[in-house]
Amino acid sequence: MITKETTLFEKNGIRYEQRGDYLYPVLGACDNATIAGVGKYGTLWMTWLFELDRKLHHQYLLEGVLVEKAIEFQEYACELEEQIIN
pTM (2 decimals)? Predict the structure, then answer.
């Protein structure tokens, strides 16, 4: 059942997915290939962010940039690791 509130949210760019009788908002949808690119350090960063700054973690999640930020952190950490090794 689509309500007046649902159409208002959809007009503001929030997509919904129907599961049974209920509509759920689609938050930060991404594919498995993108998540696999996060890597070891990106995963550690997401875990750290969730534990220490939950507000920022949720903000990134709702904006749909959490995985992007984790991939950026993974690349930065790999660069640092390479510098240390050399």
Answer: 0.60
